[in-house]
Each structure stands twice: as structure tokens, then as C-alpha cells.
Amino acid sequence: MIQYPSINNPTPTEVRTITSTHVHQEYQLFISLPLSYASSNKTFPVLYLLDGNATYTLVRPLIELQQIIQLIPELIIVGIGYPQQTYMDTLGLRGRDLTPIELTPEQKAGGYPFEETGGGPQFLNFLVHELIPLIDQDFRTEPNDRALLGWSLGAMFVLYTMFEQPDLFKRMIAISPGIDFPDTDKQSLKQNPSLPVKLYLAVEAPSDDARTLKEIELTRQFVKVISEQNYAGLEVTLQVFEGEDHFSVGSIGSIHGLQNIYQ
After folding, report:
1. Domain count, the chain
2. CATH code, domain with 189
3. Among 139, 167, 166, which Cα is nearest to 226's?
């Protein structure tokens, strides 16, 4: 059983900055190493967290609790965030980086709050060519066992990455992705003969929100269609959480998702 330090002496977080030439943006990284890292020569899986300014402090203690009962292995955790004072200050940047396509004025007219969109391809290049090589170089990682977790726009980016770079992450968690399927994903579905990914999706189900209920049905349709493609290596799990909202599903989806992908 893993014995974690008490809150008075927590395992340290290393905070770094990295400037991307692909995005022309400085990112802030939140890095946590396994408790046994310093006393061993082992390599470890890496879990990358999108929206790191919010998700790192949420997900890391959830992981440590599950590791006590050995439901999740020891991991290197990398939160990908921005050097901003508050999470709210990051919203425009995440709106740019986590959207795979540039939204039309008509799509933005539906209430989308951020002006700059469509930076997903550049952000993915940052992950592929700059961030992941840096982490693999500086730490004892297991390159064949990476995971990616995203919530909301981050979850949409997770699914985009799965189709664009099917061999990059072995395990993926997409929480409340707000899938606009089939309009945006038909072409992606045809690109890859195999998807060697263990994918977990979580969506909330408040009883009185017609928009969210529609998104649940779209997510179910998405799972049905990708399952019918018979991709080699793809495992998909969808969980619908009754009574949760878009924010509360983040924590409960993370717990169940991490248990699922590391089973």
C-alpha cells in the first residue's frame, strides 16, 4: 500500500514554464512525480491533464486516494496550464487552444463567449513536438503508456487528438465533451484503420436541461458509430451520471474514468 505524506508535508509539485514555437504561447506546467520515483530506477506512465490550472489541483488528490487502495498505478502527472493569476484569466486561451476548428459567426452567435477559436491543430503540435519530448527527456517515463484527460472543451480536444494522433495516447478520458456529432466528425471516422486507445466518456444528466439531454443522445450516437467502425484496439466506455451538472461531473467523471482506463 502506498503511504502518502500528510497534508502538512505534501508531495511537492514542480512548476515550470515552456514557450511553444507552434502556438507562440508560454505555458505553465504542474508536474508531480510518484512517491517511489527518487528511490527507484523504474519508468512510469504519464497522465497529461488539459486545463491544468483547474484540473491539476482537483485530479491529483483523487488519484492519490485511489492509489491507496491500488486502483490506479503510480503516475507522473503533468498539468498543462497558463501563467495566469486565476483560472478565469485562462478561459480565452483555452477557448483558442482546445477548439479544433474555427467557429463561424453563426456558431458563436449561439452564446460562445470566446473570440479566438480554431487553435487545436497548433496546440496538438505543441504536445507532439515540444511538450511530450521534453517530459520524456527529463523524466523516466513509459513512452508507450501515456494518458490524456480533458473536461468540457478539453474533452472535445481529447476526441480530436484520438483521431488525429491515434498512437500518441494509450488511454483517454473525455468528460462532458459536448459532441457536435455527426456534423463535425464524419471525416475523422474514416481516417484510421485502428485506434489503439482505451477511451472513457462521462456526461452529466440534469433532469430539466433539454440542451444537455440532447448532448447525451449525441454522445451515445457517437459511441455507437465509432463502435460500428470496428477499429482495431479501441475500447470505449460511456457513463451517464444522473443528477450531476457540467461542473460536478468533472470530479466524479475523473474518479470513474481513471479507475476505468487503468483497470
Report:
1. 1
2. 3.40.50.1820
3. 166
Within a 13 Å sphere around the CA of 215, how many CA atoms are in the beta-carbon half? 22
User: Is 252 within the bounds of a domain?
Assistant: yes
Query: Which run of H or E residues covers position 105?
Result: helix 105-108
Q: Which amino acid is at 182?
A: P
On the question of a cis peptide bond just before residue 182, with omega within 30 degrees of 0, the verdict is yes
Residue 3 lies in a domain: no
In this prediction the pTM is 0.92
| Domain that residue 202 falls in | 14-261
**3-state SS string over 36-74?**
CCCCCCCCEEEEEECCHHHHHHHHHHHHHHHHHCCCCCC
Residue 226 lies in a domain: yes
Q: What angle do CA 102, 108, 114 make, to 5 degrees?
A: 75
pLDDT digits (tens, 9 = 90+) for 121-142: 999 999 999 999 999 999 999 9
